[in-house]
Amino acid sequence: MKLTIRHILAISCLTILVTSCTKTTPAGFWTGFRKDLILTKSSDQGPWGGHREINWKNKSANTFTEKEIIEFADKNDWKLLDTITFSVDTLTKNSFSKLKNDDYSLDILNGSILPKLETTDNRLFIFQTTWLKVEPGNTRETFENGYAILNADGTELKVYHLWGE
């Protein structure tokens, strides 16, 4: 069989497309978690970064558990770094065991996530992801940019992921 340049180009393009699309979108795997209970979701994926936010809610207590959240995240390459129970008004840098040297992750929490919380008693899970978050101006960066927040009675779950610049 004689291959023409057109055939070689077509095969090359298909190979590139198939191999380059193996990574999912940042935190996109969370849209498959308890799909029937997703209340809201938003995602902004620009050329230099973006964010994803997903909110789940159910009326039954303990609908969402710490164990299933951690296991689901781990299966998708999010590695748990820290878990704390907190009230929004009592959260300080000293609340975190593993993030004390990562001011940028704390700034992300304080600036982009905690102001959105409506409940006061929460369980916060901080994950290291495979996506980098860079502070504008390239002064600081972190892979510790995946967060799950579970309310005290297990009826609400929120996941936040921020990446890029």
How would you briefly describe this protein structure?
The protein has 165 residues and is of the alpha+beta class. The protein has 3 helices and 8 strands; from the N terminus they run αββαβαβββββ.
What labels describe this entry?
165 residues; alpha+beta; six-stranded antiparallel sheet; two-stranded antiparallel ribbon; 3 helices; 22% helix
Describe the structure.
The chain has three helices and eight strands, in the order αββαβαβββββ. Residues 15-23 have low confidence and may be disordered. The chain is globular. Strands 1-2-8-7-4-3 form a six-stranded antiparallel beta sheet, with helices on both faces. Helices cover 22% and strands 33% of the residues. The protein is α+β, with helices and mostly antiparallel strands and 165 residues long. It starts with a helix and ends with a strand. The longest helix has 16 residues, at 5-20.
List the helices and strands and how they pair.
Layout: H1 5-20, E1 38-46, E2 49-57, H2 66-75, E3 79-87, H3 103-113, E4 121-128, E5 133-134, E6 141-142, E7 146-151, E8 156-164
